[in-house]
Amino acid sequence: MTAKANIVVIGTGGTIAGQGKASVNTSTYMCSVLGIDEILGSIPHAGELANLRAEQLLQTGSENFNNTHLLAIGNRVAELLARNDVDGVVITHGTDTIEETAYFLHLTLKSAKPVVVVGSMRPPSAMSSDAALNLYDALAVATHPSSRGLGTLVVANNEIHTARDVVKSNSFKLDAFRSPYGALGYVIEGAPRYYRRPARAHTLDTPWSITTLRSLPKVDIVYAYGALEPGAISAITANARGLIYVGTGNGNVASHLIDPLRDAARRGVHVVRASRTGSGIVLHNGAQPDHEYGWLTVDDQIPQKARILLTLALTQTDDTAALQAVFERY
Ligand code: GLU
Description:
Elements: E1 5-11, H1 36-41, E2 50-56, H2 67-81, E3 88-92, H3 98-108, E4 115-118, H4 131-143, E5 152-156, E6 159-162, E7 167-168, E8 177-178, E9 185-188, E10 191-194, E11 219-223, H5 230-237, E12 242-247, H6 255-266, E13 270-275, H7 290-293, E14 296-297, H8 303-313, H9 320-329
Parallel strand pairs: 1-2, 1-3, 3-4, 4-5, 11-12, 12-13, 13-14
Antiparallel strand pairs: 5-6, 6-9, 7-8, 9-10
Helix pairs in contact: 3-8, 5-6
The chain binds glutamic acid.
Glutamic acid (GLU) is lined by residues 13-15, 31, 61-63, 94-96, 119, 121.
InterPro entries: AsnASE_II, Asp/glu_Ase-like_sf, Asparaginase/glutaminase-like, Asparaginase/glutaminase_AS1, Asparaginase/glutaminase_AS2, Asparaginase_C, L-asparaginase_C, L-asparaginase_N
Protein name: L-asparaginase, type II
Enzyme class: hydrolase
């Protein structure tokens, strides 16, 4: 019999740490109140999967997470992964921004050891809560050798998603997580089954290491609609290094917003056209002459993933061509 893996479970809050008044409260409850020891205590059989050690790093809803939280989580996970007596890390997390934290870790951790971010849509106190099974599945994934080298994973609703693609796409249903090209695999009866691997570079194959990141540049997001006023663009770009412009359709820009966005680019703000459709590609020099305006485009990254990627890219370069290449590679 092979020795059990050593897994550290980091608690950060969220619905998985939530508590409702009654079991009928599937959507009304106090968020981030249960400690990670209490959450793990509800699945004693998880001890059969791995040797578990728990630590409480944060205790807050993930809607509050800013760049400082991302750095704190990344640094702690990196410290743990560097230890010989740690085989993998599971992070319990609110589901609201799980896709951003996971993508940040996917791009900045320098290890092949499994890292799994997990949350739940219903608190442990609710009927048919997904908290216990999601956490159990996340531990099963983190423990399994086939999860090595896949970057950061998000486990929910019996599915294993790559951090690059996963997005919370429903506000209350258990089946809330989607990857546009499908999950990497399933978890069943405490074991992962993989059918695909991440195609884009991550972890050991990126130029960003959490251990050398001290602070992160400011990148903002603006969501476009026909009545958006030029003043909003100048206000949001006043002290930003980058702007993800969430345009209509193929990242399109209303004619009265072209000048303010060109002005921002002239002031050195990196303007990236993205799409508010939720999926698909924004074609460079397609809907707008990006080359002439000094703008960038996402490849298929949704706005919140594009913000993470541009934030990291700007820690190393201001060169427009180099920044554009980053969107094609990660
Ligand atoms: N406030 C919660 C969060 O941490 C709600 C969502 C959840 O965890 O399901 O994101």
